[in-house]
Amino acid sequence: MSKNDAAAIQAILSGDKEAYGELVKRHAQTLFRAAWRITGNEADADDVVQEAFLRGYRKLGSFERRADFATWIYRIAVNCALDRLASRRSHDACRVGEEIDPEQEQVQLEDLAAGPERLLLSGEIRALQRDALRSLTPTERTAFVLRHMEERSSEEIAVALGIAPNAAKQAVFRAVQKLRLRLAPLRVKV
Amino acid sequence: MKHLDEEELVAHFYGDGDAEAAEHLACCARCAEAFAALSADLLEVEALHPPSRDAAYGERVWASIAPAVSAYAAPRRKWLRLSLGRGLSYAAACALLIVAAFLAGRFFEQKQPHPPLAVNPAPPAKPRVVVVVLSDHLDRSERLLVELKHADVETSAPLRDEARTLLAANRICRNHAGNDPELKATLERLDHLLDELAQQPQGLTPATLIRLQSEMNAEGLLFDVRVLRTQLPEPQTANRSHGGIL
Predict the structure, then answer these.
(1) Which pTM was predicted?
(2) Within a domain: residue B49?
(3) Does the residue B56 lie in any domain?
(4) B58:A25 CB<8 A
(5) Which residue from A89, B117, B194, B234 has the highest number of Cβ atoms inside 10 Å of its Cβ?
(6) Of A36, A60, A126, the CB nearest to B51
(7) pLDDT tens digits for A71-95?
(8) Are the beta carbons of B7 and A50 separated by less than 8 Å?
């Protein structure tokens, strides 16, 4: 843990609430990036960041001084994002739309009549990838995002998800399998 | 030759594969082809680029959550905690000692035979006959002293006769006073007074009467006789118990 983080935590636990502001400013961008990649939604990501820092403040008394605050708060954010995904999946109905709009939680069904020209459009490729990512379970999606995009090790993923390292590797593997299957039409047509 | 499965290829892609897998990929065209296909697919999955957040993003997050959090209570100073804890320990130890001492004392007391009470041991009881005689003698002496106190020259003659009677009884009582120094001293002073009264053949002169009254008052003889009389058991009880012999 950086000396700055340790000093800030010491100050917070001694009654200086404002010192937590320094930690929030220091780590908010990192948490937002991970939260957005897991939830795929800007508003949700903002909520996840706030929720994570709130949870972190309330649990700070139990934070072990030897641990790394960045890793600790990152794990909390991942859990908050997973909670958000679970909540969204249980409440939201899947809607069918003409256009892909990730902010509206719409899913575009595969149009078998679509030509390769349309699929080649990079925007649509990214949309398909997002769609493929959404088809994963929250754990698979989070494990894949952390491994593939956040470049976290299997051990870090295991800690963040609260699972064994082998289970983390399995989650990444299942996610890769599903994504390849989902993106296979794109590969063939291209 | 055992080929690598998809899980091993994925692990190798992310750098989790072992050296054996790397060696196999280097010499196995089939596995190398499968790995190339996997790599192509995964490399096509672009990193999702999150929307940008400006430098003030952290400040905005803090501003939104700050009202919802309250400051931690400052911990007490370590020495204060130590001294408080030590003080409580001492107090508890003292209380425990006091309780233990109290219980031990009670236990010890119950185990010990109760000694007889030794507070103001009563003087050895006088024989009841002596008590009755002494009580009667003191009673008569008190009356004599009262009369002497209020006597004048004309009325003092009967006092001489009574003094002679009491003088013999007083000497008997004095001889049987035993170890009671107070009684003995009073009876001696009474003896002196009775002797003087008894040795006045012509009756008391005014000067002698005044001198005796003064000595009696100065020595508090009448008071002492009264005190001694009250300290004796009731003569009636003694009389009853002895069937009125005396």
Answers:
(1) 0.52
(2) no
(3) no
(4) yes
(5) B194
(6) A36
(7) 999 999 999 998 888 887 666 544 4
(8) no
First to last CA, chain B: 143
The ipTM value here is 0.74
Whose structure tokens read 């690598």? B4
Tell me the per-residue pLDDT of B42-101, one tens digit each, with 9 for 90 and over: 888 876 788 888 889 999 999 999 998 888 887 666 556 666 677 788 888 889 889 888
Residue in B14, B41, B50 closest to A33 by CB: B50
Residue of A nearest to B73 (CA): A15
* Domain boundaries A95-190, corresponding CATH code: 1.10.10.10
Specify burial of residue B83 (Cβ count, 10 A radius: 0-12, 13-18, 19+). Answer: exposed
Fold (topology level) of A1-92: Rna Polymerase Sigma Factor; Chain: A (1.10.1740)
Q: Place B235 in a pLDDT band, splitting at 50, 70 and 90.
A: low
Closest by CA to A56, choosing from A43, A45, A66, A68, is: A68
Q: Are B132 and B236 contained in the same domain?
A: yes
Give yes or no for A152 touching B (CB within 8 A). Answer: no
Greatest Cα pair distance in chain A = 65
Residue numbers of the domain that contains B23: 6-39
Q: For testing the chain A interface, which of B5, B54, B61 should be mutated: the one with the most A CBs within 10 Å?
A: B61
Inter-chain residue contact A54 with B68, CB threshold 8 Å: yes
Neighboring chain B residues of A172 at a CB cutoff of 8 Å = 10, 14
Query: What ranges do the domains of chain A cover?
Result: 1-92, 95-190
Count of domains forming chain B: 2
Neighbouring-strand partners of residue A106: A95
